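User: Round two. Same drill as before: sequence, then structure, for each protein.

Assistant: Same drill it is. First protein:
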Amino acid sequence: MKMSNARNSSLIFGSVVCITLFSAAAVRADNPSWEEQQARNREMTRQALQQQAQQGPSPQVLQGQRWEQEWRQQHPNEPMPSFGALEKMHRGEIMQNMNAGFARMRQNRQAELQRNYLMAKQRQESILAGQHITWTSAQWANWNQQYDQEQHQRANDYLEGVRQAGEMERREQERKLMFGQ
């Protein structure tokens, strides 16, 4: 009798689980927001793949493919080393590319700073022209010096903010270690 009750309970439980799963699937299929989300996901995936196909592989991927091709040409019938080993073999090229990238970044930053300076100077000239004032070269030199001081202060404030953020992060990590979180 107990076995029969256990079997019946098992059958009832199994039936309830099946009905729940079927009704959840039906609700999901009937739910327009779920279907819309799935359609949006498919569209985003399609767009990402299309964009990737148009842009082609990244410079890093192309570099890795070139290294593999060079290895195969220079070392026929030898096993391909891991990508990390290839990177070590081309350390000089990597450093050269990094340095060139940093140089481009510095050049771009200098151009941006120059544009900002020219815009600030044009703004000052416009204010002065609106008031029918003409500055002497000494007054402009003073303005330049004040502008430079403001930029240095802005840079120092930024660095101090970064330092404080790092200090706060370090303290948070220490707190988590201390309290086991």
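Second protein:
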Amino acid sequence: MNGGPLQKASYSLYKDGTIALYARDYTGFSSEVWEAFTVSNDSDIMTDYFAKDTLRVQPDHPLFSLVQAGLKKHDERWAQQRAKREQRYTARAL
């Protein structure tokens, strides 16, 4: 959004186009993310139930295209890393 640090998260894509993001650790998303999106966290400290931050970005959200571009970049990087790894394993097998 503002060039700050990336938020570590996993994601799911829904058939209606919604993107769900799940914080990777219990520290959750930054305050900037909380301001820009509706983030939920159902933790209950009284019962020792701790949940990670979750947010859903629907296609009509003003920042949807930015989130979508970030996921595309993530997927491209992951594909490059996987190709490199497979190349290394193939070279070892020969």
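The first strand starts at residue 9 and ends at 13.

User: Perfect.
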